Amino acid sequence: MTESCDGECASCGKAETCTDSRRQDYEQKKLLDKQKALLKVRMGQIKHKIAIISGKGGVGKSTVTANLAVALAQHGYRVGVLDADIYGPCIPKMLGMRGEQLTAGPPGAFPAVGPLGIRVVSMDFLLSDDDTPVIWRGPLVTGAIRQFLSEFNWGQLDFLLIDLPPGTGDAPLSVMQLIPEMDGALIVTIPSEISQIVVKKAVTFARQLRIPVIGIVENMSGFICPKCGFQVDIFRSGGGLAISGDMSVPFLGTIPLDPAVCDASDDGVSFAMKEPTSLAAKAFAAIVAKIEEFISSKGSEVTPQEG
Amino acid sequence: MTESCDGECASCGKAETCTDSRRQDYEQKKLLDKQKALLKVRMGQIKHKIAIISGKGGVGKSTVTANLAVALAQHGYRVGVLDADIYGPCIPKMLGMRGEQLTAGPPGAFPAVGPLGIRVVSMDFLLSDDDTPVIWRGPLVTGAIRQFLSEFNWGQLDFLLIDLPPGTGDAPLSVMQLIPEMDGALIVTIPSEISQIVVKKAVTFARQLRIPVIGIVENMSGFICPKCGFQVDIFRSGGGLAISGDMSVPFLGTIPLDPAVCDASDDGVSFAMKEPTSLAAKAFAAIVAKIEEFISSKGSEVTPQEG
Predict the structure, then answer these.
(1) Bridge partner residues of B217 (DSSP)
(2) Lowest mean pLDDT among A34-48, A290-304, B85-99
(3) Is A173 in the B-facing interface, judged by CB distances under 8 Å?
(4) Share of chain A above pLDDT 90, in %
(5) Top-confidence residue, B237 or A88
(6) Does the pLDDT of residue A203 top 50, yes or no?
(7) How far is B213 from chain A (nearest CA, A)?
(8) What is the mean pLDDT of residues B253-259?
(9) Distance from CA of A108 to the nearest CA of B (A)
(10) Hey, are the CB atoms on B168 and A198 less than 8 Å from each other?
């Protein structure tokens, strides 16, 4: 049955000649326009947006994002995290927030609030159990990310960190196009050559979309045997520095391969909070300093909020 | 300008009333029909098709695929590998085949031929350099995979292994829909709980698409210090067994976290060929035995070819 479009519909102008498919197109356009307007408002309240990308999976993007969020919050910043990995969302588990519910009210939905007040939106909060996969093609992924950014009340934030899934497809592309004012991208790699090949593509991806590359972090770098102290480069070494040199991007530091980092993630405690004196925690603090420096160099304000 | 559709076009039937957009739809449909027919022919020449999936990135799907291909070829099977990771193709690097060219002739294109005669098709062969990203949304990815499967002369093969990218989106979905006769899926995980959450989704994904799950392989399991022999479970332990128990899928074995595996991958030599007496190589041989058993249990022929 054809419903009236109240004479607003650009495709016909008259309710009586409107078809179902035209009506759907019109509704779709109206929704997109509404989301676009909302997106502008929401993003306008967030001072800095940083994407964490790698191109390759399993290099620790989510670990870096979660720990960086905590390190920034410890510095007094108001921080939000968008877990844009729709198929394999890990941020809630890493911040000890699994099982939280996203709430909704008249002004829109609200992010879940984690440690140190970090606001988090993740597909994980919307799935009934661990086993449920999200079997979606690209357009649905794009739609979900658009909703996460526009229909959630992120509120006033200093930083929004966006944890992107592997690859250079729908999700990363949509995030970059939805937030053209992105301050920059943080690239994460592991030391191996295999990883370098894929991660270099992420640097080019950011450049082609005109997103400044803040720098590169080498994760899982060098393992020290807890018994004898012998250092083993399980995934080789120097991959981050090699990309930094080859592609002229700043090198932000290395995060050692430490079983305690995996333990902390599995236990839902940020490593930066659990072991503040560890090499890994110091590496995150150093990355925060580099981000502050990067943002200052753009002439933006980066003062943490009081209280 | 409107071209003639030779009266074949179902949408109009007459060249003079044909529009450009109808003509394009018609051409598109004709191409799809041709690819569909070719796909049936190509896949009909391959006895067994196995997808390697994980849901999560960086757990070693490509390492498992490359080594399994070598282990199967060592058993006398004729093996092909489709690297379906369009954004981060790693198979050519792991099999020492980077820089190879895909050739084309009147009967279609030909896969590159690697160690032990393994036939490989990968996006990597089509990219001009390491840095070039493939910035494609889902439909282009699906189109590339369809072409790789239908327009390449895979020839007579005993096994086609398909290395799927992380996630449960366009690429895995397309592969499963293009090859409905898929023999089964091999699931790869690492021991961590974080990985389990994501990998369980892959098991459900395979089940929802009615692909039998051959079993689960736990990669990067237990690290033994090369100096003092102390075993450290860097990514914890037991993740594979836990998923196997929780979801009632066979457990196929563990592959230890060994720097030599990463070295071999980076050097483009299959670990199973380089260190045939290592624990990891034995693990791959055991997985081959389980695959043979799985296929026999389906009543199919699994005799390796002579010569």
Answers:
(1) B188, B253
(2) A290-304
(3) yes
(4) 64
(5) A88
(6) yes
(7) 15
(8) 87
(9) 28
(10) no
- Chain B positions touching A227 (Cβ under 8 A) are 225, 228, 230, 232
Cβ contact B169–A170 (<8 Å):
yes
ipTM, two decimals: 0.88
- Positive or negative: CA dihedral B174, B177, B183, B188: positive
**Shortest CB distance from A133 goes to which of B134, B192, B202?**
B202
Condensed to tens digits (0 to 9), the pLDDT of residues B64-76 reads 999 999 999 999 9
Q: Which two tokens stand for residue A54?
A: 């790698």
Å between B6 CA and nearest CA of chain A: 31
Tell me, yes or no, if B99 comes closer than 8 A to chain A by beta carbon. Answer: no
Interface of A with B in 287-306 (CB under 8 A): none
Chain B residues with CB-CB distance to A280 below 8 A? none
Chain CA centroid to CA B95, Å: 14
Report d(CA B37, CA B40) in Å as an integer: 5
- Rounded to an integer, what distance in angstroms lies between the CA atom of residue B284 and that of residue A71? 41
A137 touches chain B (CB under 8 A): yes
> What one-letter code names the amino acid at B72?
L
Q: Which residues of B241-279 are buried (b: 16+ CB within 10 A; e: fewer)?
A: ebbbeebebebbbbbbbbeebbbbbbebbbbbbbbeebe
C-beta atoms of A173 and B141 within 8 A: no
CA A51 – CA A32 distance, rounded (Å): 23
Q: Is residue B100 over pLDDT 80?
A: yes
The larger pLDDT score, comparing residue A22 to residue A44, is at A44
Give the least confident one: B22-26, B71-75, B77-81: B22-26
Residue whose pair of structure tokens reads 């300093």 in the numeric block: A289
Residue B145: count of CB within 10 angstroms of its CB: 25
